[in-house]
Amino acid sequence: MHPYRKLIGLALALAVGTASAETIRVAIGTQDTTINCATGGLLIRELKLLEKYLPKDGRYKDVTYDIQWKNFTSGAPLTNEMVAGKLDIGSMADFPGSNNGAAFLKAGKQSFFITVLSGSTLGSGNGVVVPRQSNVASLAELKGRTISVPFASTAHGMLLRAVAAQGWDPQKDVNIITQAPEVAGPALQANKIEAHADFVPFAELFEHRGIARKIFDGAQAGAPTYHGSLVSGEYAKKYPEIVVAFLRAAIEADRLIAEEPEKYSELIEKVTGIEAAVNYLYHGPLGLQTRDFTWKPEYRRALKTSIETLELLGRPSPLNAETFIDDSYLRAAFRQAGLDYEARLASYDRLPLKADDALTGKPIADLRRAASVWVQGEARVRHYASIEGALADLRRIEEGGGKARAVYVHDLAHGIKLLAPTSWYAADAQGRLSAFLQKDAATAHAAANKGRVLDFAGAQAVARAGR
Predict the structure, then answer these.
(1) Class in CATH terms, 3-118+225-346
(2) What pTM, to 2 d.p., does this model score?
(3) Which residues contact 248 (CB under 8 A, 6 or more apart)?
(4) Which CATH number applies to 127-220?
(5) Mean pLDDT of 416-420
(6) Is 111 helix (H, G, I), strand (E, B) or coil?
(7) What does the longest C-alpha to C-alpha distance in the chain come to?
(8) So where are the chain's domains?
C-alpha cells in the first residue's frame, strides 16, 4: 500500500473513532449555602470525587464526561431547570422535593428521590427567629404578626404545620410573606420584620452573626425533615451506573467530613462564606442534624407529609411518596462501597462524640450537659463534660488573649445542639448548668430543681463563681 494511502486510512479510522465516541453530560444542581447538601454537591465538586467513581469500562469505556455544576439558593429554581432538561441531578429538602416530583408529573415526566443526605427524625434544622432585641420568646406570641419565609421551601412547610399546631388559620391568624434569606438577614437587623422562618443553616447563621434569636426549632413541631438528592427518571434509566457513581462520591464525602469535621467546615466557609462555626454546629459530633443517607420510615413519612402540605397551598398532586422514592441506586452504591445498608437503616445514632474533657482528661460519658469551645486559631474543637467547666475555661482563654470562635451546648429538653450565647440556662443549687432553647423550658426546669433562670452572661457569672 502506498504510504500516503496508509496515512489517509489511519486518519479516517481515527476520525470515525472520534465521531463515535460518546459524550455524556452529568449536570448537577447544588445548594452550596444550604449546608445540609454539602455531601451531595459542594464537597463532591471541590474534592473532585465524582471523577473518581464515574464508570470507565464496559459501555462507558470510551466515554467523555461533560460534568456541569450549577449552584442555587433554593430548590424551586433548581427544579425548574431539572424539569426543563437542563440538569440531571439536584439536591433539596423534602418539601421542595415534593414540588420537584409534582412538577415532573405535570410535565408528563418523572423524577426520583434517590437518597437522603442529612436530616433530623426529630425535625430539627428548620427554625423561626426574631430580631435579637425582640421581646418575643415563643411561637405562640406571633399570632396576628407578620412572619416571612422563603416560599415553597422546607421551612415554609414547617411553618404551616407549626401554625396549624397552634390551632391558627394560616390565612387569617398570621401574615405569612415570602422573603429569601439574603433579604431576611438585613431586615432582621433593621427590625423591619417581626419574625422569619428559614431552613438550614440560616436560623443559626443569623444567631451566630448576632442579628437574631431563635425562638422555635423544628424539633418542637415533631415533624421529621431532611435534604436529599433527586434524579431525572429518564436519565436514571438511561445511565444507572452514573447515578450509582454520584452516590458513591456522596458516600465518600460523608466519610471525609465525619473524620475531619473542622477541616471540611472550613472548606464550606471558604466556598460559601457561611462561618465554619455554623457548619460545625451541623456537621460536627452530636450535630444539629444527622448525616444519614438511608430512607428511614420517618423520612418517608416526612415526604408524605410534604406532599399533603401541597394541598394547604392549593396545589394538590397525584405524587405518591412510595413510588417517588427509589432506593435501588443507593443500595447498589452501599454494596459497591462494602457498607451494610440495613444496619445503617436501623441505626439512629448521630456522629458520636468520642472525646476527653479538656480540663480533666477523662472521657466524656454524659452528653446531656456536654459543651464545646472552638478557639480561634485552633484546628480542633475543645470538648467539656459540663457547661460550667466549658465557660470557666473560656474565661481563662479570654484572659490569656484568646477568643472563642464558637461555644456549643445542648438543649436538655430536646437534645439538640445550640449556640451558647443565645441559649437560656437553669442553674441548680450546686451551680450545675443546663441549657435550653426556650426560656419557658429553662424556667420550668429551674422551678422543679430549686434553681434560677439565666441568660448567657448569667451562666458565665455562675461558672466564674464556681457555684
Answers:
(1) alpha beta
(2) 0.92
(3) 53, 333, 336, 337
(4) 3.40.190.10
(5) 96
(6) strand
(7) 103
(8) 3-118+225-346, 127-220, 371-465
